[in-house]
Amino acid sequence: MRVFKFGGASVKDAESVKNVGEIIREYSQDDLIVVVSAMGKTTNALEQIMQLYAKQDKSALENQIFDLKNFHFTIINELFEKQNLPVFDKVNNLFQTLSNYCSTNFVGDYDFHYDQIISLGEILSTTIIAEYLKSQSFNATWLDARKTVRTDNRWREGRVNWEVTEVLIQTAVEKAIKNETNIIITQGFLGHTPKGETTTLGREGSDFTASIFAYCLDANDVTIWKDVPGMLNADPKYFDNTELLEKISFREAIELAYFGASVIHPKTIQPLKRKRIPLHIKSFIHPSEQGSVIQESIEYDDHIPSFIFKLDQVLVSLTPKDFSFIVEENLEHIFAYLNQQKIRINLMQNSAVSFSFIVDQSRINLEALVAYFQDDYAVKYNQGLELVTIRHYDEPTINRVTVGKKIILEQRSRQTARLVIG
């Protein structure tokens, strides 16, 4: 059993779907679980629909649903020649379900409704792709992840019940294989509560779904198909002359994900590590190229330094007004506020009389933070900074990213250098 995952960019239009079909054809002798995201920017469009539904803006809501329906039917019309194929009715019914849902009055928990609406993106994409593969004589079937991935009822970031999920996935896949199906198309990002209500696993959670299925089925490997040649040592948007990381360990991948590398979802690696299931990252544009593999051995981790850039950072420093030492009581007070406000710290450092931390500008309300702490602390902050993390650094690599810039804060360990620069 092998697990493939295709993201939204790989199924953004009809030609992209055909390309996915050609990739699957190369592996069609294997038993495959194919996890698929929503097509193109569908999730963004559904988020706009969700916002309009919450506002009860019926006119704009109808227009947005109409545009999204046209987007999907444009793809369908280019993939299928006959108008009486089941896919047309299936997709029509899904959009009718969306329209009916949004025609009801908005009552209750925003996040609950979010999951019910946003989940339709993956249902649409997998419905279309499963029907397309069948039309191309693939031995394919559609599997509903909303009935196989069991979570709690934490909307928008459901936590997986691994024991129940393993039974549900194994049972569903065994049934499909008994029916002589070897290609199973299912949705990334989706789950369900014990009551059967739809949940989502958090944005970019489709990678996580692939690792869930792999873990539960003891898969041979997982391949995530992306629009990059593999896992690079830096984001090419910010860094020239990037290098391919052909082979790194699970541990290294977790470190890179923790520091902000965007190629792999942070939750994806852990289930694979537990069962030592290799994770391949390959290009759907050049599928014959080798790509990268994440596996158990640490032998290759330090061969190439990796760079992770976080822009638009804010450095906040808190100093007790009575110049008392920063002790556990102060830290408890500070962390309680940050946790309450869901502010994720990217880097922190303390001295005897001050505590400093770096956060994303978009995640913090500085005016509210100052108002909260100003009675007890002198609050200072610097905006518009950049946080650079270098794994397996040396002085030349540090010099490479700091030329002409001021280092405001610096931390180094044996393997990692972290620099706040402005």
In brief, what are we looking at here?
The chain has 422 residues and is an alpha/beta fold. The chain has helices at residues 14-26, 42-55, 58-79, 86-103, 110-118, 120-135, 162-178, 206-217, 250-259, 269-275, 328-340, 366-373, 395-402; strands spanning 2-6, 32-36, 140-142, 183-187, 190-192, 198-200, 221-226, 247-249, 279-283, 292-295, 306-320, 347-350, 355-360, 377-391, 407-412, 416-421. It folds into 2 domains: 2-226, 3-Layer(aba) Sandwich (Carbamate kinase), CATH 3.40.1160.10; 306-421, VC0802-like.
Name given to the CATH architecture of the largest domain: 3-Layer(aba) Sandwich
Percentage of residues in strands: 15-25%
Overall structural class, as computed from helix and strand content, comes to alpha/beta
Q: Could you say how many structural domains there are in total?
A: 2
- H/E element string? EHEHHHHHEHEEEHEEHHEEEHEEHEHEE
| Rough outline | globular
Q: Give the beta-strand count.
A: 16
Into which percent range does the helicity of residues fall? 25-40%
Largest sheet geometry: 8 strands, mixed
Q: Kindly state the mean pLDDT as a whole number?
A: 95
Number of helices: 13
CATH superfamily grouping of the largest domain: Acetylglutamate kinase-like
CATH fold annotation of the largest domain? Carbamate kinase
Radius of gyration: 24 Å
Distance between the termini: 49 Å
